[in-house]
Design a protein that fits this description.
Blueprint (H helix, E strand, L loop, with lengths): L24 H15 L6 E5 L14 E4 L5 H11 L4 E7 H7 L1 H10 L4 E6 L34 H8 L3 E6 L3 H13 L4 E6 L11 H4 L4 H4 E3 L6 E3 L5 E6 L2 E6 L13 H8 L8 E8 L9 H15 L4
Parallel strand pairs: 1-2, 1-3, 3-4, 4-6, 5-6, 7-11
Antiparallel strand pairs: 5-11, 8-9, 9-10
Helix pairs in contact: 1-6, 3-4
């Protein structure tokens, strides 16, 4: 237990951080370590559960408990851990291939059940660890090692999937804006229920610059909308433009026009409309798309009894 104000150093360790030079995972790790002291729980109260992929390495670099599990099973393992130790703050670290391909079914049911977890879905639109195959979020036409003539299918939409699966907190951020990302991570973790944060991440080797058109600091204001509750969907260097809707149809207006749409994160259909926007036709919304309250998944009395018996066994002395 710590007896001093928490700092980033409390959540760092001496392991060499080994991702490719320029990888967005460095920025995600930094944002996470920045957010954790402000959450206020000591390192021993956090557990980071990852699957297979470049993102799967993150638990090694945290001074906290961690589980590096098998491909696609991070959400399932985290659910089991939460069943046995609901006193712990459990994070799921997963990539677009890990979470949405082999792990898709586990993710859907974790969201549906509203298990009290914080899921970081790190999306770089490619399989990085296994050297550049197309992933479930790769864009149609994207040329990869397994799609030399271009991906023929449409990409999955992680936010729309999360919303339709029953997630009670859905948000998006980008690796190149660590201050915004750290704030979103805090909000997601404070939420009671299953939170999903999609993080656009730059794979510098196999999908370099995939999000640069809107994620780089010099063009971010013109191409992203920072979602704020009860605020118009403004963007531009001076906030001169605003996204609005005519029914379900998105339209661009001058900021200051009458009857501009204001963001309401409790409005499910409004969140779903935002999740359907395509860049570059429309700017990319970042922030909290949707947040609602419903009962957190409660494990049965039988599970609680088994947990108690197991903890008694752990604590007992060997005969």
């Amino acid at each position: 237990m710590t007896n001093h104000p928490l700092t980033r150093k409390d959540f760092s360790n001496d392991n060499d951080v080994r991702w490719c030079p320029g990888c967005g995972d460095y920025a995600i790790l930094a944002a996470l370590q920045k957010a954790l002291p402000e959450i206020g729980l000591p390192p021993e109260q956090h557990v980071f559960v990852s699957g297979i992929g470049c993102a799967g390495r993150l638990p090694y670099y945290m001074n906290a408990y961690g589980l590096h599990t098998i491909h696609g099973r991070a959400a399932a393992v985290a659910t089991g851990l939460k069943a046995m130790r609901d006193d712990l703050n459990v994070w799921v670290i997963s990539g677009d291939g890990d979470a949405l391909s082999i792990g898709g079914n586990h993710l859907i049911h974790c969201l549906r059940r509203n298990v009290n977890l914080t899921i970081l879905l790190i999306n770089n639109q490619v399989y990085g660890l296994t050297k550049g195959q197309f992933s479930p979020t790769s864009k149609a036409g994207q040329v990869t090692k397994t799609s030399p003539r271009g991906v023929s299918s449409q990409p999955m939409n992680p936010l729309a999937l999360a919303l339709s699966s029953g997630a009670t907190f859905v948000a998006r951020s980008i690796d190149k804006d660590p201050a915004h990302l750290a704030n979103i991570l805090k909000l997601a973790n404070q939420h009671q229920g299953c939170s999903l944060v999609e993080i656009y991440q730059d794979c510098h080797i196999f999908k370099a610059g995939a999000f640069d058109a809107f994620s780089q600091k010099n063009n971010r204001a013109e191409n992203t909308i920072v979602l704020e509750e009860n605020a118009v969907l403004a963007y531009g260097k001076e906030g001169e433009s605003a996204l609005s809707f005519d029914g379900d149809i998105p339209i661009i207006k001058e900021n200051g026009s009458t009857e501009l749409h204001k963001h309401d994160p409790s409005n499910f259909m409004a969140a779903m409309r935002l999740s359907q926007l395509s860049f570059p036709e429309f700017p990319v919304p970042v922030g909290v798309y949707y947040q609602s309250s419903r009962p957190v998944y409660q494990f049965s009395n039988k599970v609680k009894k088994e947990r108690s018996d197991l903890l008694d066994l752990f604590r007992s002395k060997a005969s």
